[in-house]
Amino acid sequence: MGFFLETLFGGLMAGMLYALIAIGFVLIFKASGVFNFAQGAMVLFAALTMARFAEWIPQWTGLHGMLVVNLLAAAVAALAMVVVAWLVERLVLRHLVNQEGITLLMATLGISYFLDGAGQLLFGSSTYKIDIGMPKDPMFVLENVFQGGLLLSREDLYAAAMAALLVLLLTLFFQKTRTGRALRAVADDHQAAQSIGIPLSRIWVIVWSVGGLVALVAGMIWGSKLGVQYSISLVALKAFPVVILGGLTSVPGAILGGLIIGVGEKLSEIYIGPMVGGGIENWFAYVLALAFLLVRPQGLFGDKIIDRV
Amino acid sequence: MFYRENGQFKTSYRSDQQIFPVAQDRIALGLLALVAFVAVPMLASDYLFRAVLVPFLILSLAAIGLNVLVGYCGQISLGTGAFMAVGAYAAYNLNARIEGMPLLLSLIGGGLFAMAFGVLFGIPSLRIRGLYLAVATLAAQFFVDWFTNRVPWVTNRSSSGSVSVAALDLFGIPMDTPARRYLLCLALLVLLGLMAKNLVRGAIGREWMAMRDMDVAAAVIGIRPVYAKLSAFAVSSFIVGVAGALWGFVHLGAWEPAAFGIDKSFQLLFMVIIGGLGSIVGAVFGAAFIVLLPLLLNYVPHWLGLPLSTGTAAFLEHMIFGALIVFFLIVEPHGLAALWSTARQKLRLWPFPH
Amino acid sequence: MRRIGEVILDIRNISLRFGGVKALSDISFDVREHEVRAIIGPNGAGKSSMLNCINGVYQPQEGSITFRGRTFRHMNSRQVAEMGVARTFQNLALFKGMSVLDNIMTGRNLKMKSGLLAQALHWGPAAREEMAQREFVERIIDFLEIQPYRKTPVGRLPYGLQKRVDLGRALAMEPQVLLLDEPMAGMNVEEKQDMSRFILDVNDEFGTTIVLIEHDMGVVMDISDRVVVLDYGRKIGDGTPDAVRGNEEVVRAYLGTEH
User: Fold this and answer.
1) At what angle do helices A2-32 and A178-188 cross, to 10 degrees?
2) Which of A303, B213, C116, C140 could pair covalently with C95 via S-S, beta carbons 3.0-4.6 A apart?
3) For residues B205-233, b (16+ Cβ closer than 10 Å) or e, as one string?
4) A90-94, A103-107, A211-215, B235-239: range with highest mean pLDDT
5) Is B130 contained in some domain?
6) Helix (H, G, I), strand (E, B) or coil at C204
């Protein structure tokens, strides 16, 4: 039982990491209607920028305090993501305004390849560290209930807290600020928003920047836990099943979807895995998404898709 | 001046329906066939065969298969690598487990297994479309990745997880020289390519394009969406499966599941986009481009005296591919095939500008 | 003189709702073989929805449709096509990526029987079938006078010609009943005359029953045998053009009431 709970917790934590990536994806889809295949690449790019600058800043400026260095590196990375967002809007989105979803999807596929290559060209392709001071030691809880206690990762708990904070900030941003309201207007109806004077291209830059910043947070947490390496962008592909489960337009859905997939993966790996030689984690998320698509295409919280003739 | 249709009147529907109605095209094609079937085997180096020509031919075949699905029928697929893998492993098992199995039958058998697999994974397309279908095809990709890695039966219980194919022979002629392998691939490409071209020009091709362009109207005409979509998956997967079997047997010789991973799927999709969606000859252009670009990136800087490390070249390749995808999607969604077609239009008027 | 036959299509008590919106309420009318039946009414009256129900695009919640004595609660698009009902669309549902010839050839789809493999090899019977269908389609192209455009992608044609291609595709199905959804929308006087001529020729030469949605009252009065009037999803008139023209409710619906 104790082992089950540990696995469950591990799954929840893993799921939350997926959810972090998925949130960025949902934001971009909600406000620009683009299925952003490059979200994973953006996570990687942001993490790489931060990791490398965290190395270089002490070398270049002699500053050594962990907080200062990390803040500066994060700031540089955030700026880089805004630049990326601006470039994407200028060079890609602007020219593909009325195209169908498939075209935009393939364009983001191209962007993802470009970012992958650019990131590795600029920053190198080894594994890099991000150290934001997350505690690496495990903790034991409920020692009086279970013998030896349950082994939980303190780092994961901190990460969960950060994710919760992020979601809170995003919710406040969307509900309370003027820009947030404008974004919601654009998400609802591009043309109507334009007709009341909301500048579409600037909105898109903002949206993609926010998506980029969320990618940075996800990248920081992932990178701190696993190290920053190319394989992040592959794992990030799992964000797609997550949003399918949760609904392409729902942030709570992304979180719930992430948790379901995280837990589902872990549990099926531990309990069914040994029977079939392991490795179920590689496809569980996708097959689950596929099953969902056949039964409930709009996901748990998404909007129902109506076809009009 | 030279490229004119003047005086080439068609007096029957049959002659109007030819694949190459313009006489100059037929002459050019004849010359190309002569070069491809006769000159190249005599003149090309082993390296050229192995590193450039054979992969180009096989990838062209796979790209034609994928184009049938994505370009003609409008069903997006990110799992093409998986279909190639099914073809390759099925062909391998047929070859390894059945004594004296002829090569062609193994290859075709691989295609048939891939076809069955394709129809199975095509079933979701009846309910979901577009972006959602893309994610569903990822399920196929990762599932097959896992299956070929973990299920020992697939690899004939090989201890290393990789399989290899012994010497090939076609009707008793050993396929040992690169030239012969090249001719085998070329023959299969021409044969299956022609069949694909016939299909897309005929009734089923029109059904596919109708589904792509407007499926509601297609239903009202009496086209059955189920049949149209599944037949697209079936034909596409068959061709891709044969290509996969060729890739394993002829190009790689020995392989492991990673050879058919998601990178291959993306590579094929890029070929189809850059070459031109909905064009058989475009698929070939796209394959040529994708095969040549890494070589160019390796050699051109070398000649210019600025050698790039292989790592850097690989990253640049990624960036160039990504940029080109976006470029083509914005500027010429019908890819290189459309550029070629425009060039020919201009050629018709040459030397006049318009 | 057209010989108008028995009832071929019988619409009974059709009601159609989309969520809270009632598109059609208890619509009943019949269509006789070989006649030209017009459906008229202000915008939003539910005319296209009615055709969509006949075609199986929408499934009505209530009512039934009887075609040649066979009654259906729900129509299945393919079945309807097989039974010989063809249609054009208000917003043109042409296959933009294909040429005129190919678009019309898709209408022959139900008649083409060759299997996949035969088509792939372009072998004997498959090749002959393709040629035979091509000949049939060429006759339609002649009839509609669009020969110069046969290889042009339909997306490039002007609107009036696209409408003709839409009609050609429907005609290619050799239908017994032809449903035309505003075939003259957006046309000038000449184009309307051409289109009227085509429609009447089809009705005369092939005896095709025509059900026609149209806004141009002149055309409707000229070419139809009987007229159904819809307003806000209800039937408010049914009869010969003259009878309907005098109907007060119809006049009110079109011209509005005096205040």
Assistant:
1) 80
2) B213
3) bbbbbbbbbbbbbbbbbbbbbeebbbbbb
4) B235-239
5) yes
6) helix
CB neighbour list of residue A126: distance below 8 Å, 6 or more residues apart: A229
Q: Which chains touch C (3 or more CB pairs under 8 A)?
A: A, B
Q: Which chains touch B (3 or more CB pairs under 8 A)?
A: A, C
Given CB atoms, is A294 within the 8 Å cutoff of chain C? no
Question: Which residue range is the domain that position B321 belongs to?
Answer: 45-349
**A138-141 and A150-153: which strand pairing?**
antiparallel
Does the pLDDT of residue A309 top 60, yes or no?
Answer: no
Q: Which domains does chain A have, with CATH numbers?
A: 2-295 (1.10.3470)
Domain ranges of chain C: 1-84+175-259, 101-174
pLDDT digits (tens, 9 = 90+) for B52-104: 889 999 999 999 999 999 888 888 888 899 999 999 999 988 888 887 778 88
Q: Which has the closest alpha carbon to C98: C153, C166, C163, C161?
A: C153
SS3 track for C38-83? EEECCCCCCHHHHHHHHHCCCCCCEEEEEECCEEECCCCHHHHHHC
Q: Greatest CA span in chain B, whole angstroms? A: 67
Query: Does some domain include residue B296?
Result: yes
d(CA B101, CA B166): 12
Strand partners, B103: none
Q: Looking at chain A, which residue has its C-alpha nearest residue C92?
A: A309
Kindly state whether residue B76 falls inside one of the protein's structural domains. Answer: yes
Closest-CA distance of chain A to residue C19, Å? 12
Residues 40-99 of C with CB under 8 A from A: 52, 57-58
Nearest residue of chain A to residue B269 (CA atoms)? A106
* Residue carrying structure tokens 């929805």: C49
- For residue C100, the distance in angstroms to the closest alpha carbon of chain B comes to 12
* Selection from C172, C117, C107 nearest residue C140 by Cα: C172
- Determine, yes or no, domain membership for B5: no
pLDDT at B174: 78
Task: With a cut of 80, say whether residue B178 has pLDDT above it.
Answer: yes
Residue pLDDT, tens place only, C70-104: 888 887 888 888 899 999 988 888 988 889 999 99
Which chains contact A through at least 3 pairs of Cβ atoms less than 8 Å apart? B, C
**CATH code: domain of residue B205:** 1.10.3470
Sign of CA dihedral A65, A68, A71, A74: negative
- Which residues, given as ranges, of chain C have pLDDT below 50? 1, 259
- Secondary structure in 3-state letters for chain A: CHHHHHHHHHHHHHHHHHHHHHHHHHHHHHHHCCCCCCHHHHHHHHHHHHHHHHHHHHHHHCCCCHHHHHHHHHHHHHHHHHHHHHHHHHHCHHHHCCCCHHHHHHHHHHHHHHHHHHHHHHHCCCCECCCCCCCCCEEEECCCCCCCCEEEEHHHHHHHHHHHHHHHHHHHHHHHCHHHHHHHHHHHCHHHHHHCCCCHHHHHHHHHHHHHHHHHHHHHHHHHHHCECCHHHHHHHHHHHHHHHHCCCCHHHHHHHHHHHHHHHHHHHHHCHHHHCCCCHHHHHHHHHHHHHHHCCCCCCCCCCCCCC
Residues from chain C that touch B196, judged by Cβ atoms under 8 A, are 120
Asked if A290 and B216 come within 8 Å (Cβ–Cβ), the reply is no
Is the model's pLDDT at B120 over the cut of 70?
Answer: yes
Give a three-class secondary structure readout of A155-171: HHHHHHHHHHHHHHHHH
Report whether pLDDT(A120) > 80.
yes
Q: Which of A290, A293, A305 to mutate to test the interface with B (most CBs of B within 10 A)?
A: A290
The β-bridge partners of C212 are C38, C180
Q: Domain C1-84+175-259: what homologous superfamily? A: P-loop containing nucleotide triphosphate hydrolases (3.40.50.300)
Count of structural domains within chain B: 1
